[in-house]
Design brief:
The protein is of the alpha/beta class. It has a single domain, classed as 3-Layer(aba) Sandwich (Rossmann fold). It is built from 8 helices and 7 strands. A 7-stranded parallel beta sheet has the order 3-2-1-4-5-6-7, with helices on both faces. Helix 1 links the parallel strand 1 and strand 2. The radius of gyration is 18 Å and the shape is globular. The relative contact order is 0.15. The structure holds nicotinamide-adenine-dinucleotide. The site of nicotinamide-adenine-dinucleotide has 28 residues, from helix 1 and helix 6. The site of nicotinamide-adenine-dinucleotide (NAD) has 28 residues, from helix 1 and helix 6.
Length: about 260
Amino acid sequence: MRGLKDKIVLVTGGTRGIGKGIAKRFLEEGSIVTIVGGKNKQDAENAMAELSPLGQVDCMMVDLSDAAATEKMIDDVVAKHGRIDILVNNAGIQIRRWATEFPLEDFDKVLSVNLRAYYVASRTAARYMQKQGKGSIVCISSGNSQMYTSQRSAYNISKTAVNGLVATLGVEWARFNIRINAVAPGYVMTEMIQKGIDEGIIDIDNIMKVIPMKRLLSPEEIGNTVVFLASDEASGITGQCIFTDGGWSKAGLPENKDL
Ligand SMILES: NC(=O)c1ccc[n+]([C@@H]2O[C@H](COP(=O)([O-])OP(=O)(O)OC[C@H]3O[C@@H](n4cnc5c(N)ncnc54)[C@H](O)[C@@H]3O)[C@@H](O)[C@H]2O)c1
């Protein structure tokens, strides 16, 4: 894909799940990648062992609920590599409770990682990209930004806001040659989904009734849309959210698995 080789790329939440799949795709395209993890050092070590043979990759541990640490994360990448070409805001958390019982501190926690960190990282990167004369940002939204499910109010609200974030910053930053778009994944088997299955809140057989492809997607399939949007192949696209969801967002009524 054009415009990715030797580019400096930062992927938050790149230590596992969808973020690791995204980082893998950038490395396959010849980009120089920094992955960012939260607290789990084992995830970081595993990801580095898997990704290092694919190309030039670094790892940083940052708490993205901390705005100052999030700004420093971008500054550190620029201090090391001299620039930042592509930012992927992917790290996200989900806390499942009825809205009537949702602790406000958990609401703030979800919004701080899933939305505020995207805003802080994007605008910090944009200051550098503006000076560079070019940049591309991709934010990971969710099918839940449009198809709403119960007990995920903070998550659903944060993801709906991500679509608004890319639209508004896409308009504001187009004049600086900075593009910002979102990818809304459907269901991808990661620890976030496994936790939901373990808690009895996610029933995969039931979900497949509303996914026309009748399968889960892989992290790399989400990565494919991300590298496209980040690349020069998508030079005319900004402010958009591309649903990569096996058709979920276009499905009408539930269908049996074998239909
Ligand atoms: N898995 C799915 O089916 C699915 C569907 C739609 C959207 N998404 C979105 O995709 C993104 C990745 O999800 P996933 O399923 O890979 O999740 P995951 O739980 O497997 O991984 C989340 C990543 O985010 C990082 N992270 C979490 N909190 C952090 C913090 N405070 N500071 C720094 N890093 C932190 C973790 O270290 C981890 O690397 C999320 O934004 C999620 O909302 C996932």
